[in-house]
Fold these 4 entries.
Entry 1:
Amino acid sequence: MNIAFINGSPKVKDSASGQVLTTLSKRLSLGNEIREYHFLSSQVEAEVLADIADCQVMVFAFPLYVDAIPAHLLNCLCQMETFFKTIHKSDITVYGLVNCGFYESNQNALALEILENWCCHCGLTWGQGMGIGGGGMLSMLAQVPEGKGPNSNFTNSLESFSDHIKKRETWENVYINPNFPRFAYKLAAEAGWRQMVRRNGLKTRDLFTKK
């Protein structure tokens, strides 16, 4: 089976979405051909569209932007919708993985609903979506053994998610929070902001300056 991995993060490298797809790839690479694409601009080349259309499954991974889909990826989806309507190809199953900086994973629900509605407009089949909370932790979780500690919810949920992809099954969307106390996640995030402020030559109080 040909599977298209579409990374919709605007980051050139080291994105949480890329980390999610890398972890998922370990579970799908056996017996399948995984084709990886990184949508960094608002346009998709014609040969890329044709290559994706040759796949039986599409897996999107992207960060949550203002409770929705990043603008550049949304433009790509509009272009893809026109393409799929033109070629009348409907035997593709679509899955979505959305991560957000919020601790609460259900913050991703609207973005997954947008992606599901896009499938309907394209005439494609919606398989399943996964909303991932605590996206700011994902890069650090790469160093944590799978299924252990704060990584357990993420990797365990990805197991069943990958099984549904292998069978091209339609399933209910799932939402996972990190196995990590919310207050500790908030403290770590605030410490990160303060470090960024200092690196840019400012002070913590400048975060609260009103102009």
Note: The beta strands are 2-7, 33-38, 57-63, 93-99, 125-132, 174-176.
Entry 2:
Amino acid sequence: MTAPSPAALAPLRRSTECPGCGIVVPAGAGPTHAYVGAAPGCWALYRRLSASPYARAPGTRLRRLAEDAYAVQHPGVPGRRSLQSVAVHLMGLCTLLERDAEQRRLMPVLGRMPARKTMDLHWLAPPAKNGSLTVLDVIEAGFGDGHAAGVEAWARDVWNAWAPHHATVRGWLDAPCRHLG
């Protein structure tokens, strides 16, 4: 058996930095999300995390925190869908982390896309450093007792990174709900 040539190994050694969270992942093509700004390798890590038994229970606090933290940490570029995604997931983090997990608030806010005339959503410039913890830290914490602590710490870290926009997010949550017709 002969050793692979350096040229054959080169694609395996290439890496790229995720534009959202900054972790270094193997470079290459792969599936990504339509408007979440993540490298294919980082998206694969999130899919691995979200497929774990600890993350599959729908409606759980940890599942929601992980979804919100990932989406906010990978905001993508300004556009209607990414703007709405970041806004909704920031409201989710605020509701879960600051408002004592008011689950009743999650469905009206996060369960459907608000009508355009009911909320004044606008693009929020992502922080230069969008948290110091990532999906990789949660995976490395393990899927036992470390999972809950890892997800909670990650979500708080990402929420804290967006501190300049907390007042805006709280305002979105506290705006009177106007139902259209």
Note: Residues 15-173 form one domain.
Entry 3:
Amino acid sequence: MHDAPYPCRYLKLPMSFDTARIEAELDALLRPQWVSHMNTGYYEGGWRCLALRSMDGDAQNIQVIPDAEFRDTEALGQCDYLREVLDSFACDKTSVRLMALDAGGVIKPHRDRGGAFEDGLARLHIPLRTQAAVTFCIDDDEVHFSRGDTWYLNADCTHAVYNRSPDTRIHLMLDCPVNPWLQQLFDSSGFVPRAPAPYGDPAINDDNVLDIIANLRTAGSAGALQLAQRLEDTHRDR
């Protein structure tokens, strides 16, 4: 990982779990319950999911819609220890899924907009079945998420996954709205946040701000002119 103060693309958190107990519960979950990920253009090989918390309580519903109400699924009801794992996180949980990537599978480079801690979302991975040959590529970093440990992934970064092992990789993935407990956990683990966007919108930067100002002035509405002036003031002061 880059040394501080480089903002965290990923972070290992001080929470680890009993993988032997998890293995027993994974074996009890019937394979037909799992569904292939719907974003078929995002991956090669087999990428299957099973929801433990979903919008309607259906274990095969892996869609995520902001501000939806999430409920435990029947699959989670089969897993006493996994419920203990979830309860150990003193925060709300929205989507919770088991994610299985088959041997040789690839999740292609992509970004999940709004998927960063700074956006109010902690996306946590707990590898349940994995090997050293399973790696994430997160921007310029390649890293293996160790088995039984808890890892934060800044999903707003460009990331990909490569399973170069001979076995299926399974992760437990939790989406957790940031609360004071998570903030304290991250701070104590050495979390380094990204710097605030200087222009208020991460899509606006020094390379394109002058063009955006010109377009806003051309639009000519009161709101556009007000925003153009604010961007111009910020640019002048940098």
Note: Residues 196-238 form one domain.
Entry 4:
Amino acid sequence: MAMANLARRDELLESALIVIQREGPNASMEAMAAEAGITKPILYRHFGDRDGLIAAMASRFGRQLVERLSAVLAEPASPRERIEAAVGSYVSFIEEDPALYVFLTQQGEVLSLVESGVIERVASLLAGAISDTMAAAGLPARPTETWAYGVVGMMHLAGARWAATPGQSRQQLVADLVSLVADGLLGATAVETVAPSLR
């Protein structure tokens, strides 16, 4: 795709984001087109349809999320501190734009995040962190990919529910998720240590 077309798509995504932030996750394509100063058919020409726009938005969201998670996971820290940093970063990202997260998860459902590669990229990052934890404990990396996808699924669904119906503070949500992930992961590594025959 030509650079000019990519730049134009980015401009249209910015307009769409403004409308989502203003009107919420049920924002219409008509409103997005109007914000960009174009007609809906022209908007469709760039993205195909609403699902295409959702996929493009999910891809952009994913790039930004992966950049942030990569930065926090690169910091030297204990296994639990790395888990807390990753979960805190993910939840903070949702908190910055809950309308967008609800738009991506309720309008496009999880499929758009899967098809755009967001889930896979985040899981890959977490798999690396989990593998490091396993290696530090002298354990094989066999379950790391399964655990990574499980953690991403948990954060995604818990985060989507929180963004749509925020009934608790960000700090409490992070604490609850960290408790489950860290205690579960670190507890599981202990089980692998004492019961290698179960592998």
Note: The radius of gyration is 19 Å.
